[in-house]
Amino acid sequence: MSERNENIIKPTIADTPEGISGQGFFATSIEKAVGLARKNSLWPLPFATSCCGIEFMATMASTYDLARFGSERLSFSPRQSDLLMVMGTVAKKMGPVLREIYIQMAEPKWVIAVGACASSGGIFDTYSVLQGIDRVIPVDVYVPGCPPRPEQIIDGILKIQELVGNESLRRRNSQAYEDLMKQYNME
Ligand code: SF4
Asked: Is the CB of 52 within 6 Å of ligand 1?
């Protein structure tokens, strides 16, 4: 095994949630059990428009192997995915398309902006480029870099997993979430 490969952490095993255990039994809350299942079975929808998408391909391939985190099943249908990964420069013309895809995803759903372009427009401070996807959809995690290395993308996935695992089952019905959606003119 090369030195580079040795430095990659493999494989991951899901941590047991907090709970009470004894001989032959383990009890936890439904919220923690649902969080555990959700965070380890995220189905990403790759919205890749340029170079950052190539880094994502490397992240999916054998060396970095995103499948270790339960995310090997990519979905190119918004109705069958719960993690929107936006990777690349997003032109203003694509803004409404991205928004439509986000709206079509079922709740609960999460979003990662991968790389400088998706997060802020990157080096393209021009009339045609969206200066960050959070102008059209809410973003949960931003991954910096131009491009970010696969390790950084994995770090973004781990941060999303942390959010997903700890999210309250009531969050999507809360006033704060409703207000967030209203900011984006979404129901
Ligand atoms: S952040 Fe850099 S690598 Fe990623 S899409 Fe923009 S220009 Fe390309």
From this structure: yes
- CB distance 50 to ligand 1 below 6 Å: yes
86, 111 Cβ separation under 8 angstroms: yes
Q: 47, 46, 51: which is closest to 146 by C-alpha?
A: 51
What residues contact 20, with CB distance under 8 A and at least 6 apart?
Answer: 26, 27, 28
CA of 138 to the centre of ligand 1 (A): 20
Distance, CA 126 to ligand 1 centroid (Å)?
14
Tell me the pLDDT of the chain (187 aa) as tens digits.
555 556 555 556 778 888 999 999 999 999 999 999 999 999 999 999 999 999 999 999 999 999 989 898 999 999 999 999 999 999 999 999 999 999 999 999 999 999 999 999 999 999 999 999 999 999 999 999 999 999 999 999 999 999 999 999 999 999 999 999 999 999 7
Indicate the pTM of the whole model.
Answer: 0.90
Look at the domain 43-183 and name its fold.
Rossmann fold (3.40.50)
To test the ligand 1 pocket, which listed residue (146, 149, 152, 153) has its Cβ within 8 A of the most ligand atoms? 146
Q: Is the peptide bond before 148 cis (omega within 30 degrees of 0)?
A: no
CB of 91 within 6 A of ligand 1: the answer is no
